[in-house]
Amino acid sequence: MEVLESTVTQAYDLFTKKDFEAALDVLNNSDEDINNQLSTIEEDKRDEHLASIYNLKGFIYLGLGDNNSAKDSFEKGLQLNPNSSQACAGLGEVFFLNGRDEEAKIMLEWALDLNSQNEFAKSSLVKVNRSLALPDYHNSLEVDSMSEDELTIFNKCITDAYTLFKEKKFAYSLEKIEKAQELLLSGVMSNSTLLKISSLENFKGFNYLALENHDTAQGCFEKALNLDPRSSQACAGLGELFYLKRMDKESKTMFQFAVQHDPHNEFAVSGLKKVNEALGLETTNNTLEEKKAV
C-alpha cells in the first residue's frame, strides 16, 4: 500500500499547512494509481481506504470554502463506510455552515457515537449547541431514555436471564430477554443501543439452540450480525448451528470469522477445532483451502 500511504501522508501534510489546492492536486493526480493498488485487496478494506480518501477531500474542500463539493465527498465516504465517524462529522460541519443547525447536531452526535474520541466532532458539537442555545456538551444520544426504575428492571432482567440460562430454564430465560429488549427498543437507536440489541439477539439465539429450535435461532444470530457485522458471538452461534445441521464447511467459515473478530472467544475456538476434526483437517487449520490431514 506504498502509493496510498505516501499520497495520503503528503496530502494531509499539505492540508495541515492550509495549502488546500496543492493537497487536492496530490489526491486527484494519484487517483488511478491508488485505484489500481486497491483493486488487489478485499472489498471491505478497499471501501474503508476509499472512504478515508473521500473524507480527506471533503475537509480540503471545506478549507477551500467549497461546501457543495465537500458535501458530495463526505456523502461518498459515508456510502462506502456507513460507520465512518469522520464522514458524519464532515457532513455535520457542512450542515452547520449552511445554517442547518438541527441536522448538523444529529450528524455530529452520530460521529461521536461511532467514535467518542473524534476531537473535530466534539468541538463542532459545542459550537452547534451554542448556536441552538443548548449546554456545550449536550448530546441527545447520551441522554438515557430509560428512567431509573426502568434501568433497574432492565439490569434485573439480564441478571435473571443468565441465571435461568445456567439452570437450563431456557423458555423463562427468553421471557426475561424479551422484556429487556422491549425497554431498549423504546429508547433512542444509537449505535451503542444497537450493539446491545445485537448482544440480546445472540443470547436469544443460544437459548433457542438449547431448545433445538434451529430456525428461530438462526434468525436471531442473523439479526445480531446485521446489527453488528463484527459480532464474534453471532458468527459462533451460526457456526454451531451449521455444525448441528452437518453443514461443516459453512460451519467452519462462520467459526473462522468468529475467531477473527475475537481470538479470545473460547466457544468459537473450540467450535473451530471440532469442525476441523469433522472435516479431517488439522485442529489449528484456519482456511478451507488447506489439504486434509494425512
Features:
294 residues, mainly alpha, 15 helices, 74% helix, flat, disordered C terminus
Can you walk me through this structure?
The protein has 294 residues and is mainly alpha-helical. Helix content is 74%, strand content 0%. It has 15 helices and no strands. Helix 1 runs antiparallel to helix 2 (20-29), helix 1 (2-16) runs parallel beside helix 4 and helix 4 (43-64) packs parallel to helix 6.
Structure at a glance:
The protein has 294 residues and is mostly helical. It has helices at 2-16, 20-29, 31-38, 43-64, 67-80, 85-97, 101-114, 119-131, 148-166, 170-185, 191-210, 214-227, 232-244, 248-261, 266-278.
Topology diagram in text:
Layout: H1 2-16, H2 20-29, H3 31-38, H4 43-64, H5 67-80, H6 85-97, H7 101-114, H8 119-131, H9 148-166, H10 170-185, H11 191-210, H12 214-227, H13 232-244, H14 248-261, H15 266-278
* Helical content class: over 70%
Structural class: mainly alpha
- Strands, count: 0
Treating each run of at least 4 consecutive H or I residues as one helix, how many helices?
A: 15
